[in-house]
Amino acid sequence: MTFHYRYRKQIRIIVGIIIIIGSIIGFGIYKYQTRPKKKTVDTISLKKENTNKQIQNKNQEEYMIDIKGEIQVPGIYKLKKDARVIDVIEKAGGLTENADTTVINLSKKIADEMVIIIYSKWEVENWLQTKQQEQYLQEKCKNNEEGQVENNACIDSTSTPEENNANTTININTATKEELMTLSGIGETKAEAIIEYRKKTPFQTIEDLKKVSGIGDSTYEKIKEQITV
User: Fold this and answer.
1) Residue 170: partners with Cβ closer than 8 Å, 6 or more residues away
2) Which of 31, 52, 65, 186 is the most buried (most CB within 10 A)?
3) pLDDT by residue (tens digit) across 121-132?
4) CA 120 to each of CA 185, 188, 221: distance values in angstroms, whole numbers, following the listed order
């Protein structure tokens, strides 16, 4: 009895040791299996975080813009890539009193190394007059080809400036508003003022044109070779 009892006690001890070793091995296997899963989750989170940072950095990208002309503080400015022309103007201190933005798209998005020129009222008016004059002369040329007007209505591109002036002399007593507007410095408002003046008092000499409100010596000097009475 004593012999069997002693061996049973040893068996119990061995079984206990096996159970303990098995538990340790099982716990190690569990830790090994769960560790990669946690690492995968961390990797996904890291990728998302990096993507968000890249998007944020892209949205904060800045462009260099050069703005000049009729602006309070002309120069080169740095703005975010989603800014627009109006934002550049505001950053440069705003427009001068002589600025005219009718030919500029203020809502246009900026681009890197973009140059923005703010034109003056005189420059815009002169540009519009030039376009009107071109349109008027093109129409006269078209009518000339159809035999509706005299041959000298269309300016010959091979003639000299003096010959062109002679061919396009405008009678300020009889010219239409459109014809008057082809003269340098004469816009729609001044053309209408000339017509209103001559209705009351026809022009006796070309110098009488200076009696019209808004027409001074500088304007007269520009057009005196192009007008007649």
Assistant:
1) 179, 180, 182, 183, 226, 227, 228
2) 186
3) 888 887 777 666
4) 14, 18, 22
